[in-house]
Design brief:
Number of strands: 9
Oligomer: single chain
Bound molecules: nickel (II) ion
Number of helices: 6
Radius of gyration: 24 Å
Helix content: 40-55%
């Protein structure tokens, strides 16, 4: 074999090796992004906005009332048999597990998607069962529809099977929205996240967007 042939073979092998490395690296990066460590929904924006509602004490509030705090916003209803109480309890346990200064920088907010039953009085009885600083917001049907639209929350009335008009259930999406200190959307925490994972995620978001 001539010297030139040997050089050509070595060059081809080198090019193939570099190409293979690039391919493997690309796979790994692609896999990481696909598995959720890439750009999150937070960078897409468009979720959230101002709202006009009434808190459990009867005070009219807007998003600006919570400026300066991070917010954990959850949409649900007090008559909910399982999902809502579970999520509100997880939020409370998560806040209890965080360092006090961190927990104090967060305002938890429960917004009803069932304003027909969830009057101010009902909310006032309900929210303290979960967490002392939990705010419960209700409003007119139109006000609730508007805030649900802003947060892209799905909800729908499901009549009770036995025909009892007051015992209807509400189908609804179940995400915890993490909002920044100016009410801007940061991220969502999906239903079923453990309090440990929720605490980690909240601390990461506060570290990233804090100050
Ligand atoms: Ni629910």
């Amino acid at each position: 074999m001539s010297r030139t042939s040997r050089l050509i073979i070595i060059a081809v092998v080198l090019v193939l090796a570099v190409a293979l490395c690039a391919l493997i690296l690309n796979w790994q990066l692609g896999g990481r992004i696909a598995s959720g460590n890439g750009p999150s929904i937070a960078t897409t924006g468009g979720i959230g906005g101002d709202f006009s509602l009434t808190d459990q004490n009867g005070k009219p509030v807007t998003q600006k009332d919570y400026a300066g705090s991070f917010e954990l916003i959850y949409f649900g209803y007090t008559f909910c048999p399982d999902v809502c109480p579970t999520e509100l309890l997880t939020i409370a346990q998560t806040l209890d597990s965080l360092p006090k200064a961190t927990a104090d920088s967060i305002q938890p907010v429960f917004i009803t998607i069932d304003p027909e039953r969830d009057t101010q009085k009902v909310m006032a009885d309900y929210v303290p069962l979960f967490y002392p600083r939990l705010v419960g917001l209700t409003g007119t049907t139109d006000q609730i529809a508007a805030v649900a639209r802003e947060f892209r929350v799905y909800y729908n009335k499901v009549p009770a099977k036995d025909g009892d008009a007051s015992a209807y259930l509400m189908d609804h999406s179940s995400f915890i929205y993490v909002m920044g200190k100016q009410g801007e959307f940061l991220d969502v925490i999906p239903y079923g996240t453990t309090k440990e994972d929720m605490a980690v995620k909240i601390e990461q978001l506060i570290q990233k967007y804090g100050a």
